[in-house]
Write a structure and sequence with these properties.
alpha/beta; Rossmann fold; Rna Polymerase Sigma Factor, Chain: A; 2 domains; seven-stranded parallel sheet; four-stranded mixed sheet; 16 helices; 11 strands; magnesium; DXPR_C
Length: 388
């Protein structure tokens, strides 16, 4: 039996991971964590019978314990201690980090220190702490298995040419694909009046609200560029973003001899999830298959970086280094949170990110503590500046 913990079990990736578990009888769920969706967590506990669960807030412990009072053998925890316990559950072989935001950094580090392989769906972990995470994983001989569809695609393409020294000298470019989101082709004047409801209508993928907004701003691609820099040990100049509106090509690798390898498939996150859980093996996965006879062509375009500034912010953060990627990420987290609450306009997301990057001092080689403290610093700065 493969035994797994899931951090963020009630979110989009968490629920799809449990769909994969349903299809495979040799996976056992030993621990789950969630935010405040206690009703769904109760259903998951009853179906998958983990021995440990954690909720975000202590006041929800009583509610959950009451809901599962007829069950025995389930330990219920909360907060940071609960997250760390789920991440380091002794029985777990692999930890699926499906939680959103910088809160995923500490449990990921704890899991690596406990010798757990990581199925990584929390891109903020490498964006903010890649300089800590990747060397630690190497030291502990732990696998970091990407779950993002784009990084999984690159990982699959590179798996046939892995070098034991970890270098990627044979790689010419990593080509990360983007759908372009719901506002592809729009200009700034058109974006001034878009609504939250408009931004949440992604053309291809069913995702959580935060990542859907990040896709609309192209910040998501920027985060993926930074994550790819750490995951695959390539310099930023070797990472490019191209627009592929159908979301059929999930990403590509160009090698120095001119060969290009791509991973294609329908837009279904269960594929990269299952690949990470069973790597290096592949298993049957139910679902729709690509029908090439019905495809009229594959469109490739370049992103509009003048209008959708998230990508350029990311390359700037990479160039400046230090804690700047954390500033970029944390400012975006705050801004998207405000947009989701309808407190700001869509284009104000960019204004907030740029203000934070221009006005908060960089720190070289930041510690985990400095990384985690940056979120509260940025929240306060942006609240004052934008009168939130």
């Amino acid at each position: 039996m493969k035994k797994i913990s899931i951090i963020g079990s009630t979110g989009s990736i968490g629920t799809q991971t449990l769909e994969v578990v349903r299809e495979n009888k040799d996976i056992e769920v030993v621990a789950l964590s969630c935010g405040r969706n206690i009703e769904l967590l109760e259903k998951q506990i009853r179906e998958f019978k983990p021995s440990l669960v954690s909720v975000e807030y202590e006041e929800d412990i009583k509610k959950l314990k009451t809901a599962i009072s007829d069950m025995t053998g389930v330990t219920v925890m909360s907060g940071r201690d609960g997250l760390l316990a789920v991440a380091t559950a002794e029985e777990a072989d692999i930890v699926v980090t499906a939680i959103v935001g910088m809160v995923g950094v500490e449990p990921t580090i704890a899991a690596i220190n406990a010798g757990k392989d990581i199925a990584l769906a929390n891109k903020e972990t490498l964006v903010t702490a890649g300089h800590i995470i990747m060397p630690l994983a190497k030291e502990k001989n732990v696998k970091i298995l990407p779950v993002d569809s784009e990084h999984s695609a690159i990982f699959q393409c590179l798996s046939t040419s892995y070098r034991s020294d970890g270098m990627r000298n044979e790689v010419s470019r990593l080509l990360i694909t983007a759908s372009g989101g719901p506002f592809r082709g729009m200009n700034n004047d058109q974006l001034k009046n878009v609504t939250l409801e408009d931004a949440l209508k992604h053309p291809n993928w069913s995702m959580g609200h935060k990542i859907t907004i990040d896709s609309a701003t192209l910040v998501n691609k920027g985060l993926e560029v930074i994550e790819a820099r750490h995951l695959f040990d390539v310099t930023p100049d070797k990472i490019e973003v191209v627009v592929q509106p159908q979301s059929i090509i999930h990403s590509m690798v160009e090698f120095v001899d001119g060969a290009v390898m791509a991973q294609l498939g329908t837009p279904d996150m269960k594929l990269p999830i299952q690949y990470a859980l069973y790597y290096p093996d592949r298993r049957f996965l139910p679902g729709e298959r690509l029908d090439f006879t019905k495809m009229s062509g594959i469109v490739i375009d370049t992103p509009d970086r003048d209008t959708f500034k998230g990508l350029d912010f990311a390359y700037r953060a990479l160039k400046e280094g230090g804690i700047m990627p954390t500033i970029f990420n944390a400012a975006n987290e705050f801004a998207v949170g405000c947009f989701l609450k309808k407190k700001i306009a869509f284009l104000t997301i960019y204004e907030m990110i740029e203000y934070a990057m221009n006005n908060i001092k960089n720190i070289s080689n930041p510690s985990v503590e400095q990384i985690m403290e940056m979120q509260s610093t940025i929240d306060e700065v942006l609240k004052i500046r934008f009168k939130i």
